Amino acid sequence: xxxxxxxxxxxxxxxxxxxxxxxxxxxxxxxxxxxxxxxxxxxxxxxxxxxxxxxxxxxxxxxxxxxxxxxxxxxxxxxxxxxxxx
Length: 86
Fold this sequence. Notes:
Elements: H1 9-12, H2 16-27, H3 33-48
């Protein structure tokens, strides 16, 4: 899932039935966020055991708010959430 940068359940699931199973799992009262984090942390530790690992964190942020009126919808740049001039 993470190797392909897929974070959407719809993109992760190979079928509607599989997506339904994932949604039901996440809505299960017997499964907590803490349980999922604990399991993922354990799996991560197991994968890197006895290995040298370099972890890089980037807290960069791109803020184009001041350019909101300058960015226009343009077919050459693809899909944007810029305002359309009607």
